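Below is a complete specimen:
___
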Amino acid sequence: MCNEYLATGFADVDGRNDTTAYKHCLVLLDSLPYFREYKQRSYELLNLSTGLSVLEVGCGLGDDAFRMGTIVGSNGVVVGVDASVRMIEEAVVRIPANIRVEFAQADARDLPFMNESFARCRVDRTLQHIKDPQQAIREMLRVLKPGGLLLAYDNDWGTFSVSGSDEESTKIIETLWEESFTNKWIGRYLKHYFLEAGLQNVVIEPSVSVLTDFELADRVYNLLQTVKRAVEAGCLFQVVADEWVSELQLLSLSGGFICTLTAYTVVGMKPI
């Protein structure tokens, strides 16, 4: 079982003693079909093409920046920023040959770029972890060129669900995980925040992740860690927690286990 709690740890990766779990999580998520599909859809919604300048906020290990770099080509540029120095260091050593990608450490709420520097801007599962996400949106809008597109993808943890016949225990575990995020309902607020910032032609697309394997869901959502925390907090008796886990593991073996989450992709244009 992973000792790092991903819901809270991603808000301050550099403050963790060991960042291995966070790197492994990002690699895992990037390998899953659902994540590849929504990411590809985000590139399409950004209408990426050769020669564009693109900013990726909360770039992590840089995989999205690399893929967008292949689209914009050598006469374009992708700049990735992340609050974590360790993530940036890892991204830099992973840059593939023949694409123009740059990385820098930066706070999403105080970007180190001139006004109107980029034609496109993308932020993926980052706003859920930071305080004052509206300021981050305003900053991305500031560095975006008139007519440029801003896209955000993020989760609505209020929709997080796990199958389990013990409804009370299931709700306790779902809620404990949900409450661990800085902005647990950010997904449902994205369109409002975009409109509030002054973006035009705002489009929102929902998507649902469905996992049917308990072990994979635990790797993505720290289910066993959350159960442990529920017991330690006095929310569940150990025997009840053990029964809950056993039931879900059996459901997984029989094909009846599901773990779902709704997220939203929102894209808007900076006024000309």
User: Anything to note?
Assistant: The domain at 6-269 is CATH 3.40.50.150 (Rossmann fold). The longest helix spans residues 238-254. The chain has a mean pLDDT of 96.
